[in-house]
Amino acid sequence: MGQWLLLLLCIGLVDCAYKRWLSNTNFGNPANWNAGRAPCGNDVAVIHDESAAVFLQVNTTVKQLLMPMNGEVVFGSDVVLGFTEQPDHSASCTPYSSNVEFNVTYPRDWFDSNNWCETDSETGDCKTIARLDSEKVPCMNDDVVYPSGNSFYVNLETGIDIKVNTFKITGKAYTTTSFQSFLSTDQGKGMFPLPNNGQRSSVTIQRRPCNDPTGCMCGNNKGEVLNRVCVIQRKRCTKAQCRTPLKPVGHCCDLCGGVAVMKFGSGFRFDTLVNGIRRNLIDGKPEYKDVQVITSKISEDEIQMVLLDTDGVRASQLTREIAKEVQNDINAGGFKYSVLSVRVDVSSGGGSTGPISSAQTAESIPNGEIAGIVVGGAVVVGLLIVVAIFVYRRKQSPTDELGFKVFDKISFKKPNFRKPRVEVPPSFGFRFGGPENVGPSQGFDNPMYGNNPLENEKPMDMEIMPSSLGLEQEEQPTFDSSRGFDNPLYDSPPLNESMFTDPSVVEKTSDLGSRPTSFVNPMAMVEDNPQT
Ligand SMILES: *[C@@H]1O[C@H](CO)[C@@H](O)[C@H](O)[C@H]1NC(C)=O
Ligand SMILES: *[C@@H]1O[C@H](CO)[C@@H](O)[C@H](O)[C@H]1NC(C)=O
């Protein structure tokens, strides 16, 4: 029902867009390893102290796993991590043994456009349409998606009120308040680490899709948001290949081409303008096939059309044609486009008929502003490793402040001492999960995250909780809510708050509160003792 409603809203209305987060902290993602490939049977997988929580989502075999004391590997449902001494002859594996290091050691920026792609649906393909830099990151009418089956490490930065339409993390739709409480969980801190000053940017989930026929403003084309976007983006600007480049509102790099800014009157429709221009001036003209057109509403009564190509020649020519077409319509009474005035600026040659406000020159923020921290996560590599650490720690330093806390930004730096690593002996494998069809619980649940893990459990027991669900299923509660560990990877059901939820899923998970913990980690006891 809700899906239909949303679908209807998306049809025929401007700019209904999903923005999907692209990077993840998955073990199997080649981009997360310094070798450019995931570790295989000949490799020693090395995870550093500063690392994000590593999410193991596929069955994997390595030679060895080197963990820091404060590190975390989260197992997907029914996933097996195996260890072998046998040579791995598979094609993707180098024949000799090497160390392969997990290199997601700092959170990715929300305001980095490379981290987002625009899609038409939650799981749809990334679109390749041209956008202003400021519109490549989520706009206030966008539906933000952190896709299921992944784990993330995100720098929300600080001091900004990020506004979005909807916000979904691994299948769960959040409201402003539920996201706020998610951020205060250890899981939330792991994904969206706290910046140095302890305050993340706020995220307001407005539930206000774009339904204005005159278009919707992205909201990112000014002020601090544009500033942050451009600090990152400008490093990637290539030199413009025209004499007098332009800098349209909301864009960070110089462009060659033209900008037309139109003030519109009553009766204006965004789609009518865009489609009319395309039909009347662009379609069927081979000379314009390489010209990109970016149309945005930049204020309550202004539309900006940016036209660009490599040297700006065709694009500026087209810009002038557009201005002429619109001006002719204005002179004739504006019945076609309902535009009141148009001014243009082009990059080379003449034709400049008016000033175009240039994008604010954003001030540099120091690189060190990369906010975030390393969450000293739980070492969750499995029963034996856990025991190994447990023993190790006990011997090591009973007073050692336990790693399960949030470090300051300084943690991005390599510590000047090497923390001890735990080596997992070769030739042994373990898994989480169990027989099929016993319950909807996911593989395991780490009580170290809980507020009071010992509350109602036999602390030393290790239970393996059966699991039958695949990762692709979105709503997968794993926890007893009294424990406060809400792992969005295996989402709890977004009861009524979700716009996307399949109602059948909600039903299935209504007995959430009574779910037993599936895996009790004995470290939990150690961790909690100092506090009690
Ligand atoms: C990790 O290393 C690979 C290969 O060198 C590289 O492509 C990737 O961008 C790196 N990732 C990060 C997060 O630095
Ligand atoms: C991993 O292997 C186990 C058995 O070895 C199998 O039951 C499970 O489905 C596999 N999981 C994945 C994600 O392939």
TrEMBL record:
Topological category with respect to the lipid bilayer: Single-pass type I membrane protein
Signal sequence annotation: 1-16
Top-level taxon: Eukaryota
Positions of region (Disordered): 470-532
GO BP term (any one): protein transport
Keywords: Cell membrane, Membrane, Protein transport, Signal, Transmembrane, Transmembrane helix, Transport
Subcellular localization(s) per the UniProt record: Cell membrane
Skewed-composition ranges (Polar residues): 511-520
Predominant subcellular localization, coarse grouping: membrane
Residues spanning the membrane: 370-392
Coiled-coil regions listed in the entry: none
Pfam families according to UniProt: Amnionless
Gene Ontology cellular component annotations, sorted alphabetically: apical plasma membrane; endocytic vesicle
InterPro entries tied to this protein: AMN
Protein name in the entry: Protein amnionless
Organism in which the protein naturally occurs: Magallana gigas
